[in-house]
Amino acid sequence: MPFNFTSTTDFVRALLGFVLFLLIVSTLLGNTLVCAAVVKFRHLRSKVTNFFVISLAVSDLFVAVLVMPWEAISAVAGTWLFGRFCGIWIAFDIMCSTASILNLCIISVDRYWAIASPFRYERKMTHRVAFMMIGVAWTLSILISFIPVQLNWHMAEEDEEGAAGNGTDYSDNCKANLNRTYAISSSLISFYIPVIIMIATYTRIFRIAQTQIRRISSLERAAEHAQNHHQSNDCSNENSLKTTFKKETKVLKTLSIIMGVFVFCWLPFFVLNCMVPFCQCVSDTTFTIFVWFGWANSSLNPVIYAFNADFRKAFSSILGCNKIFPSTTVEAVNFSNELVSYHHDTTLQKEAQPLAVQMPIPREEPSLPFDKDSVTSNVSLVLQSTRNRFNSTYQKGNQTTFQ
């Protein structure tokens, strides 16, 4: 029985089309849901941090609408079907991908600022500042995409000569064929500089979280020691150290997921993007596969950046799935556990802070005898004050939760 090559090719194309269709639909649904939640629920619009999440969702939505479908159809058909739209499509690709990456960078800076200087952040991070940061990201994305592409500054010399003579042929494929200068400069702006900033900010966030975890842990041990000073504390100290290690590991795991997903999706493409102008040693198929890896990041961003408690409740309300996330559920995972506190109701936390801060700690009189209960009470007050201030300030800086 002869091998039916045509049938095999058709099957591969059908399977490829199905996979790409699922990717596009998941990207559309996830990011549309984020936008719909913010439009419908006012309390989501009241948080400045969510403005950056929305800007990220819009950029990823543009990737799913303006970029993915055209390449998916061409991949299944085996040829570019949209003629001279290729030039505009390339500009959209560069703009939307760059905007998505720059928004991720802004989110990391916003979180670091909120955690490193929470009180200054509260004063300085206004709606106007947030809109300016978002505006800079989108303006930069447009400047490095549409202007160079429309003026053919991005093309290699042989393609540029053909374009100047209106001889550019898009009948078979739509390849950018970047020149060396544009490939390096655009990759620096679109990826390498943002990823360096993200690594620096998330590393600092981990250090700050680690310091706070150990500070609270030491206060907890001090309070427990004051309450049980007649008993052996070896087991207690060991359990406390294990808990501290688990919390630090969880923060590190969260940050690793954030950076790991981003780098895994985009790094291979930008390495190839800088290699191709210098070495024609990368096949079109390999390059296209890693392009799709980068675009796939847009389908993962809603899961990573918008699945905190507030957004989950909004999603369940929009989808009519309130039974999945009942309103009676109480969630209070501190930043020390998962990079960010998320609470269904933070009113009590906010009220507790000034009470704890303003509560005076009795001064110890040398002439008074030792009073175990008094010492225990004072240590507990310090511990509660630290916890309340920590929860109140650090929960404002982030909105990320992993299940």
Q: Your description of this structure?
A:
By secondary structure, this protein is mainly alpha-helical. It has a single domain, classed as Rhopdopsin 7-helix transmembrane proteins. Helices cover 75% and strands 1% of the residues. It has 15 helices and 2 strands. The protein has helices at 5-40, 42-45, 48-77, 85-116, 118-124, 127-143, 146-150, 157-164, 180-227, 234-275, 284-305, 309-319, 335-338, 347-358, 372-394; strands at residues 332-333, 342-343. Strands 1-2 form a two-stranded antiparallel sheet. The longest helix has 48 residues, at 180-227. It is found in: Cell membrane.
In short:
The chain is built from 15 helices and 2 strands. The chain is mainly alpha-helical and 403 residues long. It has a single domain, classed as Rhopdopsin 7-helix transmembrane proteins (Up-down Bundle), CATH 1.20.1070.10.
Properties at a glance:
403 residues; 75% helix; 15 helices; two-stranded antiparallel sheet
Content of β-strand: under 5%
CATH superfamily: Rhodopsin 7-helix transmembrane proteins
Helix content: over 70%
**What does the radius of gyration come to?**
27 Å
CATH architecture tag:
Up-down Bundle
Largest sheet composition: 2 strands, antiparallel
Question: Any idea what the shape is?
Answer: elongated
Q: Tell me the span between the first and last alpha carbons.
A: 51 Å
Q: How many domains would you count in the coordinates?
A: 1
Unreliable spans: 1-5, 327-380, 396-403
Number of helices: 15
CATH topology: Rhopdopsin 7-helix transmembrane proteins
Task: Give the spatial strand order of the biggest sheet.
Answer: 1-2
Class by SSE composition = mainly alpha
| CATH domain class | Mainly Alpha
- Quantity of strands, as a count: 2
pLDDT average, as an integer? 78
State the order of secondary-structure elements, H for helix, E for strand: HHHHHHHHHHHHEHEHH
